[in-house]
Amino acid sequence: MTLMTRMTQVAVLGAPSRAAGYGLAGARLLMATTPDEVRLQWSRLPAAVGVVLLTAAAADALGPERLGTAAVLTVVLPDE
């Protein structure tokens, strides 16, 4: 019997200046600098992503109705 496990990926969505460092820890980087880019990246989240770290600006662009999904866990990063 073969037991297969699939690891959930962590992604960071937001401005490159805030998100880039998380790539060093293995997070998938979803760069976006405008609200439209944020919404586009969100709509294209890969199925393997289970946790999304959002910059405050990205969270504002998505709004609470989009963040209320049970499909992924979202965390809003504090402003610097």
Structural write-up:
- This is Vacuolar-type H+-ATPase subunit F/Vma7.
- It comes from Kribbella solani.
- The chain is an alpha/beta fold.
- It has a single domain (9-76), classed as Rossmann fold (3-Layer(aba) Sandwich), CATH 3.40.50.
- 31% of the residues lie in helices and 25% in strands.
- It is built from three helices and four strands.
- It has helices at residues 16-19, 35-43, 56-67, and strands spanning 9-14, 28-31, 49-54, 73-76.
- Strands 2-1-3-4 form a four-stranded parallel sheet.
- α2 (35-43) packs across α3 (56-67).
- The longest helix is centred in the C-terminal third of the chain and has 12 residues, at 56-67.
- The termini are far apart.
Number of helix segments?
3
Distance between the termini: 49 Å
How many strands in all?
4
Class by alpha and beta content: alpha/beta
* N-to-C order of helices and strands: EHEHEHE
Query: In angstroms, what is the radius of gyration?
Result: 13 Å
Give the overall pLDDT as a whole number.
Answer: 89
> What is the CATH level 1 assignment?
Alpha Beta
Q: Would you identify the regions where 5 or more consecutive residues have pLDDT less than 50? A: none
Question: How many domains, as an integer?
Answer: 1
User: What name goes with the CATH superfamily?
Assistant: ATPase, V1 complex, subunit F
**What is the CATH-assigned architecture?**
3-Layer(aba) Sandwich
Name the overall outline: globular
Q: Return the CATH topology.
A: Rossmann fold
